[in-house]
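Example 9 (inverse folding). The structure is encoded as follows.
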């Protein structure tokens, strides 16, 4: 009897563990609500950073927030399609340095920390976003 209960309990743990691994990063992070919270936190981080804020001087923050949320959703395998401009179009003429890029990543990490996103999920999202790095630097 005890063995049967232990077997059933073990099977339940295995099945529930497999189910959570099949969830998209978007679902694991908390869906659109969490994406929106990260974007809001990121805008706040930028607003109070004297090095990065000048890059946003002529930016429509509402549009930026909407498009960045779409992009994060897409990177996290959510149900979104990114409909904004290319990274080259957005960052062209800014001549973003490595140091400025890295500082912006740090601000983004702070935004995810404030949203309570686990580091494991942060790393997954950052690795997917890293594919756009070369499209932004020194353009």
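The amino acid assigned to each position is listed next.
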């Amino acid at each position: 009897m005890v063995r049967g209960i232990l077997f059933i309990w073990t099977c339940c743990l295995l099945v529930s563990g497999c189910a959570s691994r099949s969830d998209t990063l978007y679902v694991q992070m908390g869906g659109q609500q969490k994406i929106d919270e990260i974007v809001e936190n990121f805008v706040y981080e930028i607003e109070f950073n004297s090095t990065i804020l000048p890059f946003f001087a002529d930016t429509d923050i509402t549009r930026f927030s909407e498009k960045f949320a779409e992009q994060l959703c897409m990177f996290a395998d959510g149900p979104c399609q990114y409909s904004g401009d290319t990274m080259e179009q957005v960052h062209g003429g800014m001549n973003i340095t490595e140091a400025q890029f890295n500082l912006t990543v740090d601000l983004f990490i702070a935004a995810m920390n404030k949203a309570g996103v686990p580091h494991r999920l942060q790393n997954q999202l950052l690795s997917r976003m890293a594919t756009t790095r070369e499209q932004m630097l020194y353009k």
